[in-house]
Amino acid sequence: VGSSSVLSCPLKSNITMVTWKINPKVGGPCTLGYRADQNKSDRTNCSDSMSWKFGPDRDAALEIRQVGIAHEGTYTCEVVATEGNFHQMYHLTVLVPPRLTLFCDDHGNPVCKAAAGKPAAQISWALESNSTPSEEEHDNGTVTVLSKFTAYSTNV
């Protein structure tokens, strides 16, 4: 999340047409297209964060700037060239680092909280304990994990 991602497309000579078909998990589909005979590119329902990396006449790679969870989905590049038709499909999954906090509960037990991460964080304690992490799933696919340290012996 937050970085740029570049998805490549089959690089062929004598390209007639290139189309990126994007089907996000959330929201409607979008399309980026290029016709070589008219040297014309077009976009339908695509956000400004998605565009050609170098320009479709030089390279059909798609660049996604400031990747967010909303960009998750299926990306298909279709190339029409004199050699034939070529497809490249990607399933984009966005990883989100959790926000970490460490605090003590009302009884003085240490609690580690890894908020809104994707995939869910795995929390372990260096000392032996009987901690059982709890998970809370959010609508956007992220997970908050809470783990409380409870020592086996009272002299820890």
Structural notes for this entry:
- With 156 residues, the chain is mainly β.
- The protein contains no helices and 12 strands.
- It has strands spanning 5-7, 15-24, 30-35, 40-44, 50-52, 62-64, 73-81, 84-92, 99-104, 110-117, 134-137, 143-148.
- The strands form 3 sheets. A 5-stranded antiparallel beta sheet has the order 4-3-2-7-8, with no helix packed on it.
- The chain is rod-shaped and about 80 Å long.
- It starts with a strand and ends in an 8-residue tail after the last strand.
Topology:
Elements: E1 5-7, E2 15-24, E3 30-35, E4 40-44, E5 50-52, E6 62-64, E7 73-81, E8 84-92, E9 99-104, E10 110-117, E11 134-137, E12 143-148
Antiparallel strand pairs: 1-6, 2-3, 2-7, 3-4, 5-6, 7-8, 9-10, 10-12, 11-12
Count of structural domains: 2
Annotated CATH homologous superfamily of the largest domain:
Immunoglobulins
| Proportion in helices | under 10%
Computed structural class: mainly beta
In one word, what is the shape?
rod-shaped
Give the low-pLDDT segments.
Answer: none
CATH fold naming of the largest domain = Immunoglobulin-like
Rounded to an integer in angstroms, the radius of gyration calculated over CA atoms is 23 Å
